[in-house]
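Hi C.,

You asked whether I'd gotten around to modeling the 490-residue construct. I have! Everything is below, sequence then structure, no commentary in between.
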Amino acid sequence: MPRPMRRPALPSRRRTAATVVTAALVGGACVGFLTVSGASNAPAAHAAAGSSAKAPESHPPVKALPAEAHGKPATGGGSPVSVVQIVAHPDDDLFFMNPDVSQSLRSGSPLTGVYLTAGESDGINSRPRDRRLVAPDKAGYAEARQNGIRAAYAEMATGSRTSAWDREAIPTAGGGWAELDTLRDRPQIKLMWLQIREAGSINGDRPHSLHGLWNGRITTLESQRSSGTPVAADFAYTKEQVVATLTGILERFRPTFVRMQDPSPGTYPKTGALRDHQDHLYGARFAQAALARYAELPGHPHVSVQNYLGYPTSALPHTLDPAAAETKLRSLKTYSWLDGVHDCEADAGCGDLKVSVRPTGRGWTKTVRYARGTSTSWVQRDPRGGLHAFSVLDGHLATWRKPAGSLDWKGPELLPGGGIDSGVTSVTLPGGRTAVYGTRTVLGTTAADYRREVVTTVQSVPGGAFGPWRSSAPPSGTTPPAPRTSAPLP
């Protein structure tokens, strides 16, 4: 495959705020992010609405890319907060991760949004009534969606959707190329476009997709470059190269917090159809694999993860108040080019006209939900009056201790046994011992090996050390259930 020459950074023709990051835990969430570093033992909770992997597998070494600057810490202590978001399509972040995204942008912390696919769909950027008047143009539609995303992020971060972006082509650790956009007035805000071909169907049989690549139905998946991108030539990725690419992105930006979609949303019982878009699900599994690999690499800050529900939020009660929902909707109206003002100087268009028909989605702008239950069981008191706090860092259970009468937290201590999904719940057993429950993702070596299992660890004595993880696996000789989200759905 010929390697294109790197183009110089291009100023965007379009002008367009990193969370008080929080970590929601599976089954019982800490509404607050436990910031950690080698110099600080205190689990510090950020007071804001929040957000909150993976058995190791053998793999070749990953090519390291230069780390980005992270700026000053967003809090008084601990590691500087840095956020990476990994989604399948342009708009998944706006529909399913906001208002967490806008809170991150306002905090001033570094944030990088990563889009796996080009989102080219059928290539028709129009409202339904105009569909027959528009010729399919997948590269053009992909560009229009990029323009809409850049406008929405610029508006959230600076108040102006026409704030300028600097755009450049960069090599990836997987051997391909990506477009990296930097918001000129807020250079800690970046968007990264991998421009991989999308499935083009929620549930349809589309082997040339992330789904087909993950399951081994195809060996390589092609790119779909947008018109106007500084990436100068097509490329293709194997499954391994997609994982390597995402691992390289994590190495480059060194996040302390990763937002991603739900890797196991389950299926509808009557039809067996996926509850969520196949690109959402399998894109999230690629992110899981990259996070598992990244956790094995030395020298990076601890990272916490939050998974977001997608389409299933339509069937659940709304979670946002009217003001928050309206603010979220405003970003979708900008992305969808609802006003029709052609201020991006792109022939492809300034946003996603398909979304302009219904920028609320299916009630998605009125809610945000995590793929784990939430509660206050992230902290427990021991019989002596001390406190124990729990989270998940780098795929390991992380524990902090605050002895009775002390003002200082000790930790984090990472327990052996990786692959623990973000979010755990804890209970105090009769006799005073604490038990922690969670789920563990086993990636395995083939797609058929992928599974999630409920696991638990229990203190040996009240206030003492935790024992090994025990799996609540099905009895020997039975078929394990298909992976699904741990959060109950109607």
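If it helps when you're writing up: The first strand starts at residue 10 and ends at 11.

Thanks,
B.
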